[in-house]
Amino acid sequence: MVWFDKNLDNEMNHRFKLEAELKRAIEHNEFYFLYQPLVDTQSEQLEAFEALIRWKHPEKGELSPDEFIGIIEKHNLMSVLGEHMLDIVCEFAST
To answer: Which of 44, 70, 86, 89 is 20 to 30 A off residue 52, Cα-Cα?
Structure first.
């Protein structure tokens, strides 16, 4: 016999909804980067920038990667998102 678990049902519904929102977010360019400078501590010279991905969700606001990367990986959306993000980083680097 299997018992219904409302918490598990809520979690699954949340994940399905988030997956659909992620696909829409990629199509609507809702992802962006925050650029964190990397500085050599000895010379105090700027070495590079680290690009930190964020999702500007239309209802929930800014979401950090720990809220969506696992779902992106699980549903094979990483290559689509990765290509899109690479375009954004290259555009930033060329300015």
So the answer is: 44
